[in-house]
Amino acid sequence: MRRALVTGVTGQDGSYLCELLVARGYEVHGLVRRPPVAGPTPVQLHVGDLGDVQGLTRLVAAVDPHEVYHLAAQSDVGRSFEQPELTQATNATGTAHLLEALDNAAPGARFLLASTAAMFASSPHPQDEDAPVDPRSPYGASKAAAHRATTLARESRGRFAVAAILFNHESPRRAGTVVTRRIARAAARIEAGATDPLELGRLGSVRDWGWAPEYVEAMWRMLQADTPADLVLATGEGHTVAEFCAAAFAHAGLEWTDHVLHDAALDRPVPDDSLIGDPARARSTIGWQARTRALEVARLMVDAEREALERPRR
Ligand SMILES: C[C@H]1O[C@H](OP(=O)(O)OP(=O)(O)OC[C@H]2O[C@@H](n3cnc4c(=O)[nH]c(N)nc43)[C@H](O)[C@@H]2O)[C@@H](O)[C@@H](O)C1=O
C-alpha cells in the first residue's frame, strides 16, 4: 500500500486531498493544526512540529512515506501583513525544516509544495511558470522562499520535488475570511432576510477562481508524472471581485450594488490587483484542465451557504 504524508489536512485542500487519496487506496498520515483528530490516521503530526527538524525526522521515519504533500501554511494574505514573522516561520522555515527531515529519513519520497500565484508580480498576465516573481505581501514572499527551497531540493538533491503554483481555488470549505466565502455567505443571508450590507476592499481586483476539488486531482497527478515539473494550476480566466459579487447576488435574485459597499480600510496595504494563470503546461504535461469557472464557482458557493443556513431549521 502506498503511504502519503499530508500536512494541513484540516484545511480546504488537505481535506479534499485526503478524501482523494483514501479513495485511491493510500494509507494517509496527516499533519494537523492541533491534535487530537478523529479518524484512523495512524500517525498524527502537530503543525508546531514544523519548527523542529529532529522531531519531524522521527515522525517522517515512522511514516516512511512514498509521497509528501506539503499544504500546511499561514495562507491568509491579509493576516500576513499583521503577522509577517509567524507567516515566514510557518511557510518558509517550516518548508525548509520538512525538506531537511525528508533528507534525513525519506530520501526517496516524492514531495509536492502548495506554492502560489501570490509570489508573482500582478503584471504582465496571464502568469505562467516563468512569470516574474515579485510578491506583494509577506505571504507571497514566504511562499516564494518555500517554492525556491522546493526547486533546490530537486536541483541539488535529485529529489522528485515539485511546486504546484496554485491560483485561487475555492469551495464551501474555504475559511470565512477569503473574499469568495464572504460574498457567497452575504448573498445567501440577505436572500434569507438579513439587511446588513457587505463591506469589501478593492472591488476591481482580478482573480482566477477555480474549484478546489479539481486542483487536488492535479496535485496528485503531479506526483505520478514520469518527470518532476512545477506547474501553474489555474482556469486561465480572470474576473473582478465585482463580477464575482454580481454572479453570486444574481443567483440569489439580488442586485449586488444594492448590498455591497467599498470600505477602504479593507484594501490591502500593497495592491496585488491582477492574478490570472496560464495553465497550458499543466494541460500538456499531466492532462489537467480546470472545468468549473469563476461564475459557476460563485453559484455553487451560494448554494452551499443557503444549505448551511437551512440546516439548523430542518
Ligand atoms: C492564490 C492565493 O489565493 C488566496 O489569496 P488572495 O488572492 O489574497 O484571496 P482573497 O480571497 O483573500 O482575496 C482575493 C482578492 O479580493 C480582494 N478583496 C476585496 N475585498 C476583500 C475582503 O473583504 N476580504 C478579502 N479577503 N479579500 C478582499 C483582495 O484584495 C484580493 O485582491 C489565498 O488562498 C492565498 O493563500 C493564495 O495562495
From TrEMBL:
Residue span(s) of domain NAD(P)-binding: 5-301
Annotated signal sequence range: none
EC number: 4.2.1.47
Membrane-spanning ranges: none
Reactions catalysed: GDP-alpha-D-mannose = GDP-4-dehydro-alpha-D-rhamnose + H2O
GO terms assigned for molecular function: GDP-mannose 4,6-dehydratase activity
Cofactors demanded by this protein: NADP(+)
The entry's keywords: Lyase
GO BP annotations listed: 'de novo' GDP-L-fucose biosynthetic process
Annotated stretches, region: Disordered: 122-146
Role noted for this protein: Catalyzes the conversion of GDP-D-mannose to GDP-4-dehydro-6-deoxy-D-mannose.
Similarity-based family: Belongs to the NAD(P)-dependent epimerase/dehydratase family. GDP-mannose 4,6-dehydratase subfamily.
Protein name per its UniProtKB record: GDP-mannose 4,6-dehydratase
